[in-house]
Amino acid sequence: MSVLDRHGPNAIYVASTGYVSRAVYAIARPGVSVLYMQGSMGLAPAIGLGIALNTNRPVVVLNGDASLLMALGSTHTIRDHAPPNFFHYVLDNGCHESVGGQPCAHLEPAYPGVTEIMKVERGGKPPRVGISPPENGRLIRNALAEGGAAEERTGRSSGGGRGC
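Below the sequence we write its predicted structure tokens.
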């Protein structure tokens, strides 16, 4: 069962930059609210916490291992302040996948403020998210204002780094 299936279409998803955003984009069904954190490595958990503190809907952060390490201190803030509707999953592939596959430090088995660390092994990469940062922002603002889902999507393009 995927994290999206586990939390359902009513949840607000915050997808970290790079591979995580592409993976979520590849499997998210129409009607699912996803904030794609393009260019904000390490900040998805803090942004997700801010959203969770201001809604009763489940807020699910999907983060990468290297992104977690970029802002590891946020795990203690999340531990101390996260409401019960906040969930933080880390996809662990052992590297900075989107920028060339450089290895990152190995994760500990658990961290405060992290719901679950999930090992990731995959064959091919999902295509890059086919939505610009300004369009992503517009869709999220509309979804939050309307209380609905940001389901408009644009086309996808392939490409990307070597991966790991």
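The two ends are 24 Å apart (CA to CA).
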